[in-house]
Amino acid sequence: MPLRELSCDTIRAAVAQLCIEANRKLPPDVYAALEKAKSEEDSALCREILGDLIENADIARREGIPICQDTGLAVFFVELGQDVHISGGDFRKAFDEGVAQGYTEGYLRKSSLDSPFLRRVNRGDNSPAIVYTDIVPGDALKITVCPKGGGSENMSALGMLTPAQGREGVKRFIVDAVKKAGANPCPPIIVGCAVGGTAEQCMLLAKKALLRSVGEPNPDEEVAALERELLEEINALGIGTQGFGGSRTALGVHMLTHPVHLASLSVAVNLQCHAARHQTVIL
Fold first, then answer.
1. Of 147, 174, 207, at which residue does a domain stop?
2. Is 269 in the same domain as 197?
3. How far apart are CA 82 and CA 157, in angstroms?
């Protein structure tokens, strides 16, 4: 089968547009989850705040402005077809240049610093992109951007439990991570979590779990049951919308699992704020 050629110029332009669109338009599943939370919320104050969040999303879409002032670091999940040939430049560099273009032309806040230490100088264009690439069958390139703000990302957690701690230990770790986070990740949140794999793989899967449509269960019923239990316990914490109490701390719990070493039980948590932004394009 002949290779399909895809130019870096095409990739760069698609990345730039994805960054702009993701930061201005809340995905339909997230919007619907906020509306559902408002209709089911017990607290009058939290219903009012949820209404404000929905109105904010409406204004952002209508006026073409960011949903949130923290437009995040640009995180990409990429599926590259093995029958695609990238031409006209550096594949990885095309993402960096696309992010710089999108965040500049879209008037999005640049949050990327040149050094994590004392210098901490703003790079001025929000590059580099954070890119995770899987090689898959086919001749298409699928790009999903998930801008990740600092408030929610700072609440990430990794636990290397003992196998003896089991299912209940996993539950306690995840619920405790949300409890510790409190209002910092701007609830109502989506809880991305993962169990299994090595430490770094578990953390990546927890972030990837956030891309699932809000409330869509894991296809494995055992995992789906755990997601339901976790959502109930998390919403019983009473943190609530923006930390003002009420019955909706989380819109959903999304878990991914992976085979694990017999001596390990890794568990990771990656929280997403109510502005759960993501956009996908297939080239």
1. 147
2. yes
3. 34
Rounded alpha-carbon distances, angstroms, from residue 177 to 16, 30, 31, 47, 243: 34, 22, 25, 25, 15
Sign of CA dihedral 219, 220, 226, 228: positive
Dihedral Cα 238, 244, 247, 251, nearest 10 deg: -100
Q: What is the pLDDT of residues 35-90, one digit of tens each?
A: 999 999 999 999 999 999 999 999 999 999 999 999 999 999 999 999 999 999 99
For residue 220, give the 3-state DSSP assignment: coil
Contact yes or no for 223/123 (Cβ under 8 A): no
CATH of residue 191: 3.30.1330
Burial of 2 (0-12, 13-18, 19+ CB in 10 A): exposed
Token match 């080239």: residue?
A: 283
Domain that holds residue 74: 4-22+68-147
Answer yes or no: is 269 within a domain.
Answer: yes
- Whether the bond into 219 is cis, omega within 30 of 0: no
Q: Does 109 lie in the same domain as 155?
A: no
82 burial via Cβ count (<10 Å: 0-12, 13-18, 19+)? exposed
Owner of token pair 């437009």: 71
In a domain? residue 229 = yes
